[in-house]
């Protein structure tokens, strides 16, 4: 049976408040399934309930505290408002096009049970520190956290960078200096062994003992690690659940991935992890093909078109075969372990990298505070 998606009424709804904000600040009512309170997920910055919830058609929503970091608008236990549709009435299906489709007749089992399951599935972990959106990229440029001045106290130094040379086994050669200029521009030493600095291409997502690992760009401290729990909805770069902001349909809900932040980005929002996935899109810069400012390209025999769309990358697992051999496994990870998901929303919490040696050993960076 077709399960109708939530549709927020277009009519102007008066701004409502929950009346629980200590400083008296009034906050607008929140759309269904949105954040209505929490220290890191709502502008109030407080635990508990900070705003009321908008109804969804005939369904009432209430603000429920999940933990001190996050409260969410979910369907009320009491049912619906006066104009709510009963299971025997017609339920309007959200159209995929501009033309409104004819209402679909459903029975009680088909309508009520799936909606209840969807609401129950969206459970933020109790130890969550907030919600964030994810995107993906892989540009081949020297990582921000490969510059010593960008990294705090470590036991190993900053993130290692690599040359454009590969050994006889196809392994990219690591650079010993942290001051070699990036292929994508900027200053520093001209080269080491005849090469400028690139990202190491083996820093792609991988699995170890059934745990997913990866690397990301984010607006947080260099070399920090985070455990991401995938949600069943998309989340925008401000940390708010959103509808239609990606093609993600919840296929990873409840599963986890541990990432280390090794890069940053001026185009990233405050609540965004840009996952480093080969074939996930070049983004702003491109050290893999073409002519980077401090060049040459890391893979000179390949064209930009081989990597798919500039933003988004390849769209099928088969297209991963277009990439250089060293990048194919990381590209395929997105379609196997990550189920081909498109920018899933996540809940995040800070974890010590010292518990995840297979991750920090790839980056070469372990903060003193993360030693266990």
What does this structure look like?
By secondary structure, this protein is mainly beta. It has 3 helices and 14 strands. The chain has helices at residues 108-121, 325-336, 357-363, and strands at residues 35-37, 59-67, 70-80, 131-137, 162-166, 172-174, 206-208, 211-217, 225-230, 234-235, 241-242, 256-263, 272-276, 346-351. The protein has a 6-stranded mixed barrel with strand order 4-13-8-12-9-14. A 3-stranded antiparallel beta sheet has the order 1-3-2, with no helix packed on it. The longest helix is centred in the first third of the chain and has 14 residues, at 108-121. The protein is globular. The model is unreliable at 1-20 and 78-119 (pLDDT under 50).
Residue share in helix: under 10%
Major β-sheet strand ordering = 4-13-8-12-9-14
Oligomer: single chain
Secondary-structure-derived class: mainly beta
Structural descriptors:
mainly beta, 3 helices, 14 strands, globular, single chain, 3-stranded antiparallel beta sheet, 9% helix, 372 residues, 6-stranded mixed barrel
């Amino acid at each position: 049976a077709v399960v109708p998606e939530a549709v927020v009424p277009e009519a102007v709804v008066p701004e409502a408040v929950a009346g629980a904000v200590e400083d008296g600040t009034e906050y607008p009512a929140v759309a269904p399934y949105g954040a209505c309170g929490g220290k890191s997920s709502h502008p109030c910055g407080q635990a508990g309930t900070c705003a009321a919830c908008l109804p969804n058609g005939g369904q009432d929503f209430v603000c429920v505290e999940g933990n001190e970091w996050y409260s969410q608008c979910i369907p009320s236990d009491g049912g619906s408002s006066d104009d709510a549709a009963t299971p025997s009435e017609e339920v309007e299906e959200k159209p995929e096009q501009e033309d409104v489709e004819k209402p679909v007749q459903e029975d009680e089992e088909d309508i009520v049970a799936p909606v209840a399951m969807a609401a129950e599935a969206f459970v933020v972990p109790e130890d969550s520190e907030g919600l964030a959106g994810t995107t993906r990229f892989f540009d081949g440029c020297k990582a921000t956290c490969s510059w010593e001045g960008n990294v705090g106290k470590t036991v190993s130094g900053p993130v290692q960078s690599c040359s454009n040379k590969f050994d006889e086994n196809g392994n990219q050669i690591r650079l010993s200096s942290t001051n070699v200029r990036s292929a994508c521009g900027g200053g520093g030493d001209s080269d080491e062994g005849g090469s400028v600095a690139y990202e190491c291409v083996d820093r792609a997502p991988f699995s170890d003992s059934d745990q997913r690992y990866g690397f990301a760009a984010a607006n947080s401290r260099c070399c920090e690690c985070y455990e991401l729990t995938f949600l069943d909805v998309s989340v925008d770069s401000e940390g708010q659940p959103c509808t239609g902001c990606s093609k993600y349909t919840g296929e990873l809900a409840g599963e986890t991935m541990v990432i280390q932040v090794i890069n940053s980005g001026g185009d990233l929002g405050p609540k965004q992890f840009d996952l480093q996935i080969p074939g996930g899109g070049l983004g702003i810069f491109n050290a893999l093909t073409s002519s980077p400012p401090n060049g040459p390209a890391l893979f000179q025999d390949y064209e930009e078109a081989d990597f798919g769309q500039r933003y988004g990358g390849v769209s099928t697992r088969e297209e991963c075969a277009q990439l250089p051999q060293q990048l194919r496994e990381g590209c395929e990870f997105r379609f196997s372990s990550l189920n081909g998901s498109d920018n899933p929303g996540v809940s995040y919490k800070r974890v010590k990298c010292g518990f995840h040696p297979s991750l920090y050993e790839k980056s070469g960076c372990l903060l003193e505070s993360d030693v266990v």
